[in-house]
């Protein structure tokens, strides 16, 4: 089968198209013919062994997110059948419940082989059937970015209708958060770097927006949008530079979901506000398989379509990584395995 893999030594230059023997499903396993993948911030840095021993061993097939057609199943498989489409879950052994060390380490695209492969052979417990209304490209975006937004707002955040949410940026996770907020009847304020993206965010239902390039001290302006009360929830993607602003506009008792550290990973803020405002600071790391299934059911009920920004050919994986690094995207960057 055709694969992309990091071979020989770590480093993006050693990420190449190669071949491996075709897999065959054993008992309890499912064979997928992959049709699409989508990329996340983590994927271009795994080839550089950015996650240390957590990156896995070589050769390694990169990329965590994708979708495929079920073309064969091993004995005893009941969760899917031949002809279904399925997404591999990001964490293969986190089925439900609380995270633990094992559940948080068995992730696709490092240390486990990822989706940039013609076929994937996985435990049936590690896949979720995809609703019919989604295209392959749309479905490929769900396992990491969408589930992270779902876990932050629904599974852990328990967001309620009428509550106020602040979302940072217009990347993959942020747009799913906006869609889920609207689905759940919450009020969404989004901050973004560009007026052009802000127009698109308004079309998607953003109730209020702030250009954070024009208003770097956006915390105060954001608080004013809530009549001074503050936000019930904040989806924190920036980290170092954004957390001080978020602490200025979270309400007492509000929930700050830390999902990214795009502006830096060190704490450089007055931590006292977390205590005096009794802020719930919750780290989110993707989520479990049952969450992915519940999220897909909710999306199907509301016919929510992921926003696909740009599609690259299979052979253009490195070009897709370079595009991701520009930050120009609005939503998800996908790879078609058919091209
Ligand atoms: N915890 C998890 O499980 C998990 C899962 C997925 C991703 N992540 C992390 O979450 C972050 C976002 O992921 P993604 O896939 O949504 O990325 P993405 O699609 O590449 O989107 C990034 C967007 O974030 C916005 N942004 C960048 N710096 C910002 C800042 N200082 N303040 C506000 N917005 C900023 C920009 O939007 P504008 O141009 O509109 O400003 C940018 O386009 C990454 O750090 C990623 O590693 C974490």
Automatic annotation (TrEMBL):
Enoyl reductase (ER) domain boundaries: 11-335
Organism: Jezberella montanilacus
Pfam family, one: ADH_zinc_N
Name the UniProt record assigns to this protein: NADPH:quinone reductase-like Zn-dependent oxidoreductase
Gene3D superfamilies xref list: Medium-chain alcohol dehydrogenases, catalytic domain, NAD(P)-binding Rossmann-like Domain
InterPro entries according to UniProt: ADH-like_C, ADH-like_N, ER, GroES-like_sf, NAD(P)-bd_dom_sf, Zinc_ADH-like
Species classification: Bacteria, Pseudomonadati, Pseudomonadota, Betaproteobacteria, Burkholderiales
Gene Ontology molecular function, alphabetical: oxidoreductase activity
Signal peptide: none
UniProt superkingdom: Bacteria
């Amino acid at each position: 089968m055709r694969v992309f893999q990091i071979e020989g030594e770590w480093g993006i230059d050693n990420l190449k198209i190669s071949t491996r023997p075709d897999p065959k499903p054993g008992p309890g396993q499912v064979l997928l013919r992959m049709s699409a993948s989508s990329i996340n911030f983590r994927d271009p840095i795994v080839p550089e062994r950015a996650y240390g021993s957590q990156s896995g061993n070589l050769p390694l097939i990169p990329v965590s997110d994708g979708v495929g057609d079920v073309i064969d199943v091993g004995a005893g498989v009941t969760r899917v059948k031949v002809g279904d489409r399925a997404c591999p879950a990001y964490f293969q052994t986190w089925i439900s419940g609380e995270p633990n060390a094992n559940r948080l380490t068995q992730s696709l695209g490092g240390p486990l082989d990822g989706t940039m492969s013609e076929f994937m052979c996985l435990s049936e417990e590690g896949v979720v059937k995809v609703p019919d209304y989604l295209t392959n490209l749309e479905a490929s975006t769900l396992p990491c970015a969408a589930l992270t937004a779902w876990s932050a707002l629904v599974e852990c955040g328990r967001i309620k209708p009428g509550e106020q949410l602040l979302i940072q940026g217009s990347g993959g996770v942020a747009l799913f958060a906006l869609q889920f907020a609207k689905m759940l009847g919450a009020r969404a304020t989004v901050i973004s770097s560009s007026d052009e993206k802000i127009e698109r965010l308004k079309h998607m239902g953003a109730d209020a927006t702030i250009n954070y390039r024009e208003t770097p001290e956006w915390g105060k302006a954001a608080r004013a949008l809530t009549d001074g009360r503050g936000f019930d929830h904040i989806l924190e993607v920036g980290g170092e530079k954004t957390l001080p602003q978020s602490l200025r506009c979270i309400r007492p008792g509000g929930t700050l979901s830390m999902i990214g550290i795009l502006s830096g990973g060190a704490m450089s803020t007055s931590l006292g506000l977390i205590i005096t405002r009794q802020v719930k600071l919750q780290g989110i790391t993707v989520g479990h398989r049952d969450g992915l299934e519940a999220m897909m059911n909710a999306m199907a009920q509301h016919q929510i379509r992921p926003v696909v920004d740009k599609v690259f050919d299979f052979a253009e994986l490195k070009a897709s990584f370079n595009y991701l690094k520009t930050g120009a995207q609005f939503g998800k960057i996908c790879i078609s395995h058919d091209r």
